[in-house]
Design brief:
2 helices, globular, single chain, 4-stranded mixed beta sheet
């Protein structure tokens, strides 16, 4: 499943650093464990070094009433999906991989920003901030394991 999300985070980075001129293509891969339940709701979003919400890169799941189960994303974003181009109607199936490709502002790397992944499955457990990955050039290509439904998470710079 390959998806191309919005360049909104580049715009969010531009709000943080007005002199921003460069962006780079980044691919995020979130592989889910074969957990044996319904499709997962997944939020992929970015916080700055102070923990302030900067933008959502991807939000998966059809039923918006379950977005509140993505607790850390819901708290950070205010639960608002207004203006998000990176929202898909499909949840991510057990054992499947979600691939999100975006252009991110260069200023987001090695600047204290973190990518977060929240997951939730209907009638199963919620995993707020299951992944918290510092956005660094050195961290690119290094997989991380999640504490819940995420088997592996990796981002690659192009």
């Amino acid at each position: 499943m390959r998806k191309f999300a919005l360049p909104a985070l580049a715009a969010a980075g531009a709000m943080v650093m007005p002199a921003l001129a460069q962006a780079r293509p980044v691919t995020f891969e979130i592989k889910l464990r074969p957990y044996g339940g319904d499709g997962a709701y997944v939020a992929l979003y970015v916080l700055d070094k102070a923990g302030a919400y900067k933008g959502t890169l991807w939000l998966s799941g059809q039923k918006s009433k379950y977005y509140a189960h993505l607790r850390d994303w819901d708290r950070a974003s205010g639960g608002s999906v207004a203006g998000l181009d990176g929202v898909t109607g499909a949840s991510v199936g057990a054992g499947k991989t979600l691939t999100v490709s975006v252009d991110l502002a260069d200023a987001l790397f090695d600047g204290g920003f973190t990518a977060h992944v929240d997951t939730s499955v209907e009638k199963m457990r919620d995993n707020p901030s299951e992944i918290v990955a510092p956005l660094t050039a050195a961290g690119a290509g290094k997989p991380m394991r999640g504490k819940g439904y995420v088997e592996s998470f990796v981002y690659r710079l192009k």
